[in-house]
Amino acid sequence: MAKTKVGKYVRESYDELVTKVSWPTWKELQNSSIVVSVASLIIALVVFLMDISFKNILEVFYGLFM
User: Into how many domains does the chain fold?
Assistant: First the structure.
């Protein structure tokens, strides 16, 4: 009984992936990859600038007490 349920699940999953899922085109994948790459670079730059800013602020703050 368990084998038939697993087999049915696999067949239905395969059918859904082949007939019902809308797969992106190669051009859509390229565009999405570019958007993700640019967004990642921007976020990394913002985090880097925040890190440098906090480092400098804390150095000034700690300098007041030494």
Answer: 1
The whole domain housing 15 covers: 2-63
24, 32 in Cβ contact below 8 A? yes
Distance CA 21, CA 14 (A): 10
Which amino acid, 61?
A: F
Residue type, 44: A
Report the 3 state secondary structure along 21-49. Answer: CCCCCHHHHHHHHHHHHHHHHHHHHHHHH
Question: What letter represents residue 14's amino acid?
Answer: Y
DSSP code for 18: I
pLDDT in tens, 16-45: 999 998 989 999 999 999 999 999 999 999
